[in-house]
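Is it possible to get an amino acid sequence alongside its tokenized fold?
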Amino acid sequence: MRVLVVEDDAALARGLVAALRAAGHAADHEPDGAAAAGIALSEPYSLIVLDIGLPGLSGFEVLRRIRAVSAVPVLILTARDGMTDRVRGLDLGADDYLAKPFALPEFEARVRALIRRGQGQRSPVLQCGGLVLDRSSGTVTLAGEVLGLRRRELAVLEVLMAKAGQVVPKERLAGEVFGFDDAVAPNALELYVARLRKKLQPNGPEIRTIRGLGYLLDVR
């Protein structure tokens, strides 16, 4: 999934982005509130991590602009003693909050929970027949056997499994898998899909190309 981190503390932002990417997500960072409000509404993010204490345009105003047109899950970051900020953020439509400083494992757990909630799924496990993806551990099994997937392959498969039986437009799939800073070759998405098809054979579900539209994980 793709996550936007809106945080003006460069060191903290680097740590959060690194943790998100290590977990298999595409992650973008934007320190400026006004720019973040525009990016958040133009890209297919699955989650926005939003610091309230931004200079210039505040996190509250960024949240207000997002909520005017989008229901994307938002995790706000606040000061430890910022009870008023937490209440205000939740009232403006934030889905959850973390008080600084926080432990990285808690951040990662909240990210997983909010992404599941945004997809309308309570369980961390996605299953299509004998194909099972456990998002909490990042493991994939097929008929009980562990599949060795690279990070991008896992990201592509997660999007397709979350929309199993539905066509996922190629542009949407690429937008959820690749961030702004990713060096992406023109045929990168096709390469990852081809690798997944090979690894899912012969007993896994088929990834079908719907010409002119995108890809579909066939679960019939």
